[in-house]
Amino acid sequence: MKTRVTEIFGIKYPIVQGGLAYLAYAELAAAVSNAGGLGQITAATLRTPERLRSEIQKIRTLTDKPFGVNFAISRHDGRYEELLEVAIEEKVPAISITGGNPKPVFERLKGENIKTLVLVSGARQAQKAEELGADAVMAVGQEGGGHLGREDLGTMVLIPRVVDSVSIPVLASGGIGDGRGLLAAFALGAEGIEMGTRFIATQECVHANEKYKQAILEANETDTVVIKRTLGAPARALKSDFAMDIIDREHKGATYEDIKDLISGKANCNYIYDGNESEGFGWAGQVVGLINDVPSVQELFNDMISTANKGLNRMENIIVERTHS
Ligand SMILES: Cc1cc2nc3c(=O)[nH]c(=O)nc-3n(C[C@H](O)[C@H](O)[C@H](O)COP(=O)(O)O)c2cc1C
Predict the structure, then answer these.
(1) Which SS3 state, helix, strand or coil, does residue 218 take?
(2) Which site from 103, 126, 213, 285 is most exposed, i.e. has the minimal number of CB atoms within 10 Å?
(3) In the beta sheet, which residues pair with residue 283?
(4) C-beta of residue 125 within 8 angstroms of C-beta of residue 114
(5) pTM of this prediction?
(6) Nearest to 17 by CA among 59, 48, 53
(7) Residue 66 class from Cβ within 10 Å (0-12 exposed, 13-18 middle, 19+ buried)?
(8) How far is the CA of 320 from the centre of ligand 1 (A)?
(9) What are the pocket residues of ligand 1 if the criterion is a CB atom closer than 6 Å to any ligand atom?
């Protein structure tokens, strides 16, 4: 596969593993990079500069391929700057930025040889990222797991809109879990994809509790809900009594203070690490409806590439009249 994304990031396949709070550590990121994609370590949940540095050093023992570090810049108690310094000192190949105004990050990265990806949920945000100097944007539709845009735009409309709005490459994200989604992203004008939920159900996502993985396998496409919508920070999680209780409280007018313990990182970890469903929740996207196995990342990539090729043949048979330029 050859797109501007494979060229800019020096990868074989234009497939990026999204930042995954509390789950995206060296093991998973290295597996994705070794399979030919761009794996990422999530800085925010590592919290301290020392831990981020040691995770970056660890991934370098597991792969010699490019990888990225994800920065959720608004959800990090203002401490992302220290972590960013570590990523710069360690000369990481790429960083992705989400959650807030990326301008200060771009100012700090000037002159550094680090490729940048910005997560966006709309055309205007994508243009802003391009103006600031992003190498590519990842546009996330409302099907996706974790935090979403507030506009409820589905991937199918969002991607061509963003593609038409910028000249830098666009990666499609939200609802992609197999080779059909990969091919569809190309059809919409994207030059690559980002996946989050699909990577949780892989062998190398070693930090996810078996209950969480099993719930992803068992869930169908209607088994996710959006929490925190009334707080202006919508985010998609597996449907559960715990998640429904949060939504119920929101509908009754709960403030951030009222429910902060229920939506905290601790509540997230209670479920995704300890499998305690009465004390926490797990992020996941609608693509859970398409996930039925827990392959290795390499097996997942092999299957996606072969399915995309089959889909391409199928499309060639559908579009019988073609112009060759
Ligand atoms: C468990 C989980 C945790 C996430 N944590 C982060 C994060 O820390 N930073 C980030 O940029 N995106 C995060 N996301 C969003 C993903 O990077 C990605 O944009 C999203 O999962 C794409 O949609 P999909 O789940 O349908 O593939 C998370 C998603 C999930 C499912």
Answers:
(1) helix
(2) 103
(3) 237
(4) no
(5) 0.97
(6) 59
(7) middle
(8) 38
(9) 18-21, 23, 42, 44, 70, 72, 98, 119, 140, 143-146, 173-176, 194-198, 283-285, 287
